[in-house]
Amino acid sequence: MAKNNISQLNNAYTREHTAKKQRAPKSRAHAVHMKRIRNLLILMVVILGLGGFSVVRTQMTLGETNHAVTKAKANLDKLKANKAALKVQVDQLHNDDYTAKLIREKYLYSKPGEVIFNLPDKANKIPNLNVSQ
């Protein structure tokens, strides 16, 4: 085996050149890695931002839909109550006695020989002055 007879000079220029050569690949590699990390972080922030925006928009839409459903249910309950009242009224209108009573009351008709008296309502009632306060 032959010995290597080549030796390196140990002066300022060779030390600087060797240090620069060792530093250059590390700094370039480091710069490339940092650029990749920065790009990945930017991509991640964009994806998370879009996802967060989508979630917020979906929550707002869900809230509006729930509010509309609540209003619709309340309206449905009112309509069901109104329908039940109208059904009772229709059933009463099929009764001849009730119809005759309603017509006499509303249009002030009377049966032959019947006398009609108009009494004041509770709101128009005359206060009793004899009661001590």
Could you give the topology of this structure?
Blueprint: H1 12-93, H2 96-107
What's the gist of this structure?
This protein is about 70% helix and about 0% strand.
Radius of gyration, in Å, reads 48 Å
- Assembly classification: single chain
- Tally the helices: what do you get? 2
Low-confidence spans: none
SSE topology string: HH
Beta-strand content = under 5%
Structural class estimated from helices and strands: mainly alpha
What brief labels describe this structure?
single chain; 133 residues; mainly alpha; 2 helices; membrane; transmembrane helix
Question: Your description of this structure?
Answer:
The protein has 133 residues and is mainly α. Helices cover 71% and strands 0% of the residues. The protein has two helices and no strands. The protein starts with 11 loop residues before the first helix and ends in a 26-residue tail after the last helix. The mean pLDDT is 85.
